[in-house]
Amino acid sequence: MSRINTNVQSLVAQRVLGANNFALGTSLDRLSTGLRINRGKDDPAGLIASENLRKDIRATNAAISNAERADQVTNIAEGGLQEVSGLLTELQGLLTQSANSAGLSAEEKEANQLQIDSILQSVDRIANNTSFQGVKLLNGTFDYQVSNVSGAVSDFQINASKFSGANLDVEIVVTQSAQQGQLFLSVGATALDFGGGGGSFTIEVSGAKGNRELSFASGTTLTTIANTINSFTDVTGVTASVAASGSFANGFSLVAEDFGSKDFVSVEVKSDAGINGAATQFGVYNFDAADASSVDTASGVAFNSVAAANGIRDDGQNIGATVNGIVATADGKTLKINTDFLNVEATLTTGDSQTLATLNAFTITGGGADFQLGGNVDVGGKVSLGITNIAARELGSSDLGFLNDLASGKSFNVVDGDIDAAQKIVNQAIGQVSSTRGRLGAFQSNVIGASIRSLGVAVENTSAAESLIRDTDFAEETAKLTRSQILSQASTQILALANQTPQNALALLG
User: Fold this and answer.
1) pTM to 2 decimals?
2) pLDDT at position 279, please?
């Protein structure tokens, strides 16, 4: 059949040529850009998936940059704390030197006090000048803001806290009372009475700091015994007081200086001097486990017993508590928790640490240093860190005093102040600065370092997934290009032949 008006072969050739040219153009487009998906029509589902992955990659790279910036901020803060730590160590040496009163002149003590004043000023200067891009790091800028602090809380420190609401209430439930180790020695009178016998009443008193053996003659009053034991408190860690409890009207108590399981009181009766039998209710007693002010009448051990000779000991007890539902670790009256969302330490007053109750300790209303170390901007991707004020007026505690109390004219100066108490304050300050440095170091090593490494792996894997979806496979695409080139050339030649076919009809016209 020969038709002129409609060249079907030419139409077919044009359609195939168009398809081949389109495939050729697609291959050229992909090879020139390196992307398999250049527009939505190339692969709608793949485009959506790859854009989501690109979003994740960009956010994760930003989180890595944030982590590196956080490391720089922490390095600067650590540098300031390191210098303060060195100053406090020097201050410790000056206190020890100044305590050598018999070997120092008044002028030398005053010179030491001048150095101490200079150290305190330097600590304040470092606290005010350590900064990152003008933001102070050690003057309390990154400390947490609190309100509604309960009178039951004598001291507290918030190391980290993150929450999604406007504030966070910190609730403490005391489940076990804090206790001191304590014993009661009942002697039946206001003074020792050996019933006409001779010798001495000899006991060895021991505590967390050490022990001391003491001997008392007949007729020694309980007040004298207590004062003698108290004169060695710095050596033993045990205090004594004349006490009466119920029917035990005449005796004295031995109490560990501090609360907690690390502190104890122990007494060994080396010689009872025949004190037993002169009256009833003589011996060593424990206090009631449920009432620290009452003697357990069933716990008595006679002074002349083997048990008393081997030593009667009573250990202290740490407070037991939960903080916002988390079981706290404790040391004496101090409790703390450390979770991803809350790291807090609090010390309760003596009365409240011994009362089983629920306490609304305080409310955290803001503050802290927040670092975004995750791709998603939410509470899970945020890490918070509290850096307390390290000024001299803040280092120390309400129980012991604060570092600025060592300045000239203050209670604990080295010229005419209490150097023993001053050293306790400095020890506390050194511990606080060291603890802060340790927290910053752990934050750098375990949080920032781990975050950078894990985020880097996440970027690699996400980029690989995005590349698999969106990037061009050059081996496959070059093969398609070659095929499309050949087919396009062939289609062009066939179209030329198809266009010449109608001319054959002229031969029929003769």
Assistant:
1) 0.73
2) 44
